[in-house]
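Input/output pair, single chain:
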Amino acid sequence: MPTQGEISQHICNVLLIGDWVIDDNWVIGAHQSPISTNTGRELFRSLHHPANSLQRFCGAARVAALLHAATRTPIDLSVQGLGLWHPDDTGYFREMFQPASLLGHTPYTLHRSRPRPPISDPRISLINFAPVAKAIGYKHARLRPQKLATDDIEQYFGTTHIFRCYQQDRGKVKQLNRIDWELTPKKEDGIYAWMQKSDIKKSKVAHAFENMASKIQPPQAVIIKDLGKGLVSYALLQSLIEISDLKLRDVPWYISTKIWDAPWLELLRQEGIRVRLILYPQVAFRQNSLVPSWATPEGLPTEEAVASLYTIAKSFYSEVNNNVLAALVGPRLRAMLMELTPHVGRPPDAGYKRPEDLSVFVNPQENPNKIDFNNAVGNASAFFAALVFGFLHRHITFSNAGLDARIESGVLFKSALDASQNWIAQECRWLDSPQPSAMPSELVMTMKPTSTKNSKSANSYVLDTTAPKMEGRKLDPVEIPDPFGDDDWDQWQQAMTGLGIITAKVEKPAVQIRRACIEFPEYICLVPAKRKALARLRDEIVEFRPSRVSRPISGLLVSRPGAGKSHFVKRLEMSLNLKTLSYNITTLSHRDDLLACFDQIVTTQSELTPEDKLLVFFDEINAHFAGHSVYDVFLAPLEDGYYIRRSFKFHIRPCIWLFAGTVDGEGIKKDAKGSDFISRLTMGQIDLTLNSSEYPEIQKTERVYLGLSLARAAYSDLTSVRKRVLRVLSELKPGLSTRDIRRFVERNLAVSRGQGDWKKVKRIYLDNEECFGFGLEERTSLQDSLLRDEEGEGVIRIEYN
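Output:
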């Protein structure tokens, strides 16, 4: 049997297709100069040393560089990079694979040395799509005519270059802005595509493509890093797959894309491509309208997130391609990895819900090591490169060598997260202190044998990173959680249906309140339409940067009276770390009172930093002053950021304006200035009202959770209830307000020694006519059924955390 040493020289040739991008990262500080003129709003100066390295690879180029830097034991990676850049830049791209060559390329000099003769490195070859783009009709940027028709502005290609500017201020680093120098192609099927289906039949294009493809050696794996900038397209992949000599149908594919379910993925399904890994950054997952939130406040995957990743992975699963992984990575390396594998030792007709095993590994940690993961250090690219490096060994190296070893997905998931975290720490050096020797960090990776308590095989291998950790940073090790499998999925499905009682993988039947608090901690919401509305509001607030914008964001929250709007605002404030000022129009008696609210807003803003987010909440916005609406008072603050008191203008910095009322936008438009008010709301209307016929079953489940949550607020020692308590809560009238449900629970529930039951079980339906949407006959029938139900005596645990 081969040993590790016998496979150490195995060469793995991969084809990396994607968007090759260059990052320029400038670190600046505030500058005070008595002789500088035309400074604009602010004056800065560079903090870089003349010998610094400002440029970094991004996108597919970054993945190529990280894989290229990987150690040659036990795998020798050879990377063929297919991308689009300016024809004169190929030498510079090749030179950038040697980080030392980037030192001194700063604006302190106008001189840019021509690239030195390329170092002979058989492990990297660059293939430029530019000749094909030129044949398609995208003219060379250098040959741009003096006069240009408007329709032809986008008919050029070049190297995509991104400039990011960071400011050091009081020991902290923040990104000020980003400037993209990119030339975009036309769209096809809703996404950018440099090569489109209609181009394939053009002889000139076919000839150029054939010449380009002749430079590609048959790979043992295909890697796609798609940023949605147009290189990866249906036509390009179809043309490559049809080249029989490349044998792309017979090799594993590893994909990272910012486009959720991109059209070219359907091509891969039709062609039977062996997609082994598909990874989505969070920007892609947000495009999935079926998933309001992919993670709970605790960082665990939601049912919709698991179901969506399963659908994607399942679409590539087959008898031939029977090991498929789908992954998601979000901010601060909160990641999820799903694996589909065949059932082991289980007959296909054994009654299982799926013909394959499902495991999900999650990293919910918030990484308290204080690394700023919001900076442009490419955590998704590093995570993707580390995963690919490990899976290349699993699917190619060990398999081809016949080595009896395994690389467990959970172990690889952990080590890939560790590797990404180490690399991010190193890359943060040029932000913390742009020293003369700071160069792009390499992620040195190797596979080493290990035998740990987490490993199921004596011959298990783990990804190891030998790159030095950054001094002064404590990196928290990532624990390998128990896989999230069939039982966990069953728990989610049980929690989202019926009475919400979970029986799978628990000692005693239980209702877990946290399952209903998906968008915000301690805020019950299960109805899909409401969840999507709240998720949209949350995402808008998360992305809002008051120091970078000139206008506020604003929205209208529409709900019925007593629906818990104030409770929601408190949860919003706590979960998003907002400073909140709350007002109610009905408590104000005249216009000066409203202007006094604006005075308080300005005063509060003066006490906050420019980065702090202030939420201004006005309830009962549809109320009137002396028979007149108040919408006109908000027009100037929302549009221009000021208000006028006694002919003096006062400025209000950009903040978050949230209005709440019982009348929707159409009703508000009927009032004076109502249309102008609605037109200024950047987030529009967030409608939390529901027709009683919408989602009737999930509404019943939601009322169970809401009732139990309100019961716990009234009785802090409540830990369990009789099952009939849940049944009665589910039968409450659709549309019953939170206030009315709280009154019902407080009036009728009795708690003794931590266990809850109805005070008058025999008349619970009959004595509360206003809380049930049934007539006397139906309520009598429900009452009789409740008393006959022996299961109603059962005890259900209530878990709140």
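Residues 379-401 form the longest helix (23 residues). The mean pLDDT is 81.
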